[in-house]
């Protein structure tokens, strides 16, 4: 099915200054479309988490927003390096964040679990040397 | 409690004086690990942190908090304050420690959670 609205954002590795721009725009667009309340807040939190993950952990990637009737979909797709141990990465408190990320107050190891908690549907696929794709769905009441 | 009532309670100064202080504080929190706050932040929250970079404002806005409070007279960078103003997020600076700030808020009945 063709989405009613689609938006795409490139997120660069280590770009802590612009981090949050994509998720801020996603929130703005959804607000304009008429998404509000709990769903809007959950999408905002999850999109910020995934955007920061691209900045902190990936070699760069793209964040795509698709809006369908009854569903908001967020897809994060990066160009690597891939996650060697997905089970560990999904564990609260486990982090491989750099000193730089930690000095800014990130790297609590809550990112992926927090995305999963906020999204209604959560799927992650990762191949070392290829990249990681995260797909999240949020149901509109 | 309104932000305007919180300011005298914690002897704070509003570093974003152009923004309205007429917003409700419904709960309080103290934490300096932003990625932790992202998973525990809530709307109406008064968040005490020693972090002052731009991402603090992004996290506070994301959770639709009432205000950010810097303890022990910590200053915030100009660019972070500019972002706070553009994102409509009040930033307060208090001479008290984070412990004292939370103690005074709790004594006035502000809970940890909504």
Strand count of chain B = 5
Regarding quaternary structure, what we see is heterodimer
Distance between the termini of chain A: 19 Å
Mean pLDDT of chain B: 96
Number of strands of chain A: 5
Distance between the termini of chain B: 13 Å
The chain-level structural class of chain B is alpha/beta
CATH superfamily of chain B: HprK N-terminal domain-like
Label the overall shape of chain B. globular
Q: Widest sheet of chain B: strand order? A: 1-5-4-3-2
**What is the CATH topology of chain A?**
Heat Shock Protein 90
Enumerate the spans of chain A where pLDDT stays under 50 for 5 or more consecutive residues. Answer: none
Proper CATH architecture of chain A: 2-Layer Sandwich
Q: Give the C-alpha Rg of chain A.
A: 14 Å
Largest interface: A-B, 23 and 19 residues
Here the CATH topology of chain B equals Udp-n-acetylmuramoylalanyl-d-glutamate--2,6- Diaminopimelate Ligase, Chain: A, domain 1
Percent of residues in helices of chain B comes to: 25-40%
Helix content of chain A: 25-40%
Number of domains of chain B: 1
CATH superfamily membership of chain A, which one? Histidine kinase-like ATPase, C-terminal domain
The tally of domains of chain A stands at 1
Detail the topology: elements first, then pairings:
The complex is a heterodimer of chains A (141) and B (114).
Chain A: E1 5-11, H1 21-33, H2 37-57, E2 61-68, E3 71-78, H3 86-89, H4 99-103, H5 111-118, E4 121-127, E5 131-139
Antiparallel strand pairs in A: 1-2, 2-3, 3-5, 4-5
Chain B: H1 3-9, E1 13-14, E2 27-30, H2 34-40, E3 45-48, H3 54-62, E4 67-70, H4 78-86, E5 90-93, H5 98-107
Parallel strand pairs in B: 2-3, 3-4, 4-5
Antiparallel strand pairs in B: 1-5
Helix pairs in contact in B: 3-4
